[in-house]
UniProtKB/TrEMBL annotation:
This is Histidinol-phosphate aminotransferase. Its EC number is 2.6.1.9. Its cofactor is pyridoxal 5'-phosphate. NCBIfam families: hisC. Pfam families: Aminotran_1_2. Residues 40-341 form the Aminotransferase class I/classII large domain. GO terms for molecular function: histidinol-phosphate transaminase activity; pyridoxal phosphate binding. Pathway: Amino-acid biosynthesis; L-histidine biosynthesis; L-histidine from 5-phospho-alpha-D-ribose 1-diphosphate: step 7/9; Lipid metabolism.
Length: 344
């Protein structure tokens, strides 16, 4: 790995961050707060939230098996994705490499930040070869984007190829594990101590059932987390979100229960799809959705839409000709989809 200073945008490396009132005073014993120009009324919403979300991170550390200083929290994973560009890539000069197809935000954020985006096509089984990713890199490549289980294909990427990529690349590798709760594979976030150039992303939007509160996580070496914290908005995770997340984390068994039901429904849906005349093929999945190759995805998409059922049409995505991406819903929702397709 190149030294972190070399991988970081020079102005960011040199940045002296904004110091908020609540940064400078973070003890617990004070009882009068006249430091932040807050209104004394309308408790508790009158107070600025903890800028570093210490209570939430302490609980997350236990649940996720990652030390609290290795956790960054943001306004969805999307904030961490954008921060990776703003911290480590120089607009107009640097580039990033990513698997193709994958989650659309990596490219959108590259475009917003004026960073060259180099997609590397997966093979027919939606797998990567480390050497192909590395071949696409040059001295201006700062980041490699991986997503496992991958969206929209649904499959886990081969672990050996991921590890080879991390070990052989001299920049940062970001592995988005938004869907790892649905997979049997050991999460890579548990290995961040081994790889100083690895950033793993998680989210509250999928298995945790909290897309509305906008809370995403990045796990990495403390030096990387410190750079993210320096650049983020001071109060990037609001008080209501921190409170709701703590409530969700108090009931992890609820989440385990949801995951079990979703996985059962997933196999039921895949079996049912395989029997549909309109379905040519269902791809293997390790996530809470699956990709299905249809006989004319666009027509079926429009037909479902006219019946009030929305799925994701991926037909214009590389390697996904005529594919629909189907999220596993409740039993009732899944049955409505099947009933509509049986009548198609
Ligand atoms: C849904 C999804 C996310 C979640 O993003 P949030 O901003 O946390 O809601 C992240 N990565 C991938 C690959 C996803 O599919």
């Amino acid at each position: 790995m190149r030294p972190l200073e070399e991988l970081t945008r020079p102005n960011i490396w040199a940045l002296k961050p904004y110091s908020s009132a609540r940064d400078e005073y973070s003890g617990n014993e004070a009882k009068v707060f006249l430091d932040a120009n807050e209104n004394p009324y309308n408790n508790p919403l009158n107070r600025y939230p903890d800028p570093l979300q210490k209570g939430l991170k302490a609980r997350l550390a236990q649940i996720k098996g990652v030390a609290k200083e290795n956790i960054f929290l943001g306004n969805g994973s999307d904030e961490a994705i954008d921060l990776a560009y703003r911290c480590f890539t120089r607009p107009g000069t640097d580039n990033v490499v990513a698997i193709e197809p994958t989650y659309g935000m990596y490219k959108v954020c590259a475009d917003i930040n004026n960073i060259e985006y180099r997609p590397v096509l997966l093979d027919q089984d939606f797998q990567i070869k480390s050497y192909k990713l590395l071949k696409a890199c040059d001295k201006h490549t700062k980041l490699i984007w991986l997503c496992s289980p991958n969206n929209p294909t649904g499959n886990n990427l081969n672990r050996n190829e991921i590890v080879k990529t991390i070990e052989c690349f001299d920049g940062l590798v970001i592995v988005d594990e938004a869907y790892s709760d649905f997979s049997q594979e050991r999460p890579l976030r548990l290995e961040i101590d081994k790889y100083p150039n690895l950033i793993v992303l998680n989210t509250f939007s999928k298995a945790w059932g909290c897309a509305a509160i906008r809370l995403g996580m990045a796990f990495a070496d403390k030096k990387i987390i410190d750079i993210f914290n320096k650049v983020k908005y001071p109060y990037n995770v609001n008080a209501l979100t921190q409170k709701n997340a703590l409530e969700a984390l108090a009931e992890p068994y609820e989440v385990d229960k949801w995951i079990k039901i979703i996985l059962l429904e997933r196999s039921r849906m895949i079996d049912a799809f395989k029997l549909l005349p309109s379905c040519e093929k269902v791809y293997p999945t390790d996530a809470n959705f699956f990709l299905a190759k249809m006989h004319d995805a666009q027509t079926i998409y429009d037909y479902l839409k006219s019946n009030g059922i929305i799925v994701r049409n991926r037909t214009h995505v590389s390697l996904c000709d005529d594919c629909l991406r189907i999220t596993i819903g409740s039993k009732t929702e899944n049955n409505e989809l099947l009933a509509a397709l049986r009548q198609y």
